[in-house]
Write a structure and sequence with these properties.
The structure is a homodimer. Chain A is an alpha/beta fold. Helix content of chain A is about 40%, strand content about 20%. A six-stranded mixed beta sheet of chain A has the order 5-6-7-8-9-10, sandwiched between helices. The first copy, chain A, is globular and about 55 Å long. The relative contact order of chain A is 0.14. The model of chain A has no long low-confidence stretch (mean pLDDT about 95). The interface between A and B is medium-sized, with 31 and 30 residues.
């Protein structure tokens, strides 16, 4: 089991009630629906359509940081243009997890007055849907991408100047994910450099980026105070949920995490980086 | 001007009095001697011999992290086996900057009762002098190397397990430098993950690793309290001095740093990583 929405929704569910928007094919295993339900994920926005569920496969270099897509089958996502359930439209924290940017914009356009909108993406959309992606970036508060995508988008090898260029495309907050090397946030309070939680065994990093941004948004939506005062901790929570994700295939190890185990790794990461 | 000893000595000189051991050829420019003197570096252990000064050249990939040696000319280092000045032998903090490990061991054997000995290295010695290097590693408190060297030495792609394997070779403290991605310390108090100081313009990272370990040892030798309680801050000071080094060629920008400017970047790095 994988998919950006699944990873992000489960990651966020450790912190907040989640409403999932997405589509699966008739081949989608029943037990996965049960898994969402165990995590109290609202499935009113999940459609099941005739056809095949989205499928992605790829391979990683031995460093587990660089990956190459082998196959992307959109399946039922090909023609998916959801009408959001009414109960979803007033959500204050909106995560547009990685999918075609036109679809992300379509979902966003149905939200009434979101307080904070984040969008994630992947190299595929930079390659085949860049104009849509640039339109989307203008509309979000926070744009999230990985280091190689940031370099591709800005044609700039230097991440700090890439960050500046991405801000010029619209978003007030930009987060560049660097896998095992952590992440950089650029926002109103300047930069924040976060470390990844160090893992002794990385089994499969697929979904780690989705888990990161899901955990981040889940924490952010429930934390008291302003987004600015919570965003750093939100990134650490995101990193921690991502660390659980990397320890197994699919959602196998993420679902075994608990809020208590997450808090433990959060504190550990604080200890590991304090000076 | 470059060379591990030059970079490390100047970096350490911002924190502590430095006694330099090394050799240069008759071609060594007089103005470089003046530079050492301006930094109050004791030159009793610096010999000038007939022949050419050590010379290294290399090229960096566009990411400024991966480099390839083009040329290493040992010159007068080929036959250098120094007898340490008496005034050097009681030094408490000894940095064996990157050079042939047999030479590092030869210097160390003349020290009376050092309190803390660190050794740096480079891929060249892993390739051509591994037995000597393994002998050296056994004798030092702290072994410092970069991530690709750690992978090469341990035949392990995973840095946390590489750290464990390096501890088994002898040293209580191991530091893996990761360039722009910071550094990892593994010691008595477990791990410490440090971030690199983020630079807007990297001109040349040559000597950054030497500056890092020089700054680290310089701070460590003057800070009150135990090595364990100071090592994290020492790594941050090392990172900061290395950041100045990267902003220019050779020692051009390192020498323009001041203790005040170093403290400023130290505080900034604390702000950038706090959560």
């Amino acid at each position: 089991m994988g998919g950006s929405a699944s990873h992000a929704a489960v990651a966020a569910s450790f912190f907040a009630p989640v409403k999932l928007v997405g589509v699966v094919g008739e081949d989608f295993p029943r037990k996965y629906i049960q898994l969402y339900k165990r995590h109290n994920i609202d499935l009113e926005g999940l459609q099941m359509l005739p056809g095949k569920t989205f499928h992605w496969s790829g391979e990683y270099e031995v460093n587990m940081n660089n990956r190459r897509t082998l196959l992307t089958e959109l399946g039922v996502f090909e023609t998916f243009t959801p009408t959001l359930p009414k109960s979803y439209q007033d959500s204050k924290f909106v995560l547009l997890a990685n999918i075609a940017p036109a679809l992300q914009s379509h979902v966003l356009s149905q939200m009434r007055r979101p307080k904070f909108v984040a969008a994630d993406t992947m190299d595929l959309w930079l390659n085949i849907a860049l104009p849509d992606l640039l339109k989307l970036i203008k509309q979000v508060d926070c744009f999230v991408l990985n280091d190689s995508e940031a370099r591709q988008l800005t044609q700039d090898d230097h991440l700090l100047s890439a960050l500046k260029k991405i801000h010029k495309l619209g978003p007030k907050y930009v987060i560049i994910k660097k896998g095992e090397h952590g992440a950089i946030l650029s926002g109103r309070n300047g930069l924040f450099l976060s470390s990844a939680y160090p893992l002794h065994h990385v089994v499969d990093p697929t979904g780690a980026g989705d888990s990161f941004v899901g955990g981040l948004m889940g924490y952010l939506s429930t934390a008291r105070g302003s987004v600015d005062s919570n965003l750093r901790r939100a990134m650490i929570y995101g990193s921690v949920v991502a660390s659980f994700c990397c320890e197994g295939f699919g959602l196998n190890t993420t679902v075994r995490a608990t809020r208590k185990a997450i808090e433990k790794r959060f504190k550990e990461l604080a200890r590991l980086t304090r000076f």
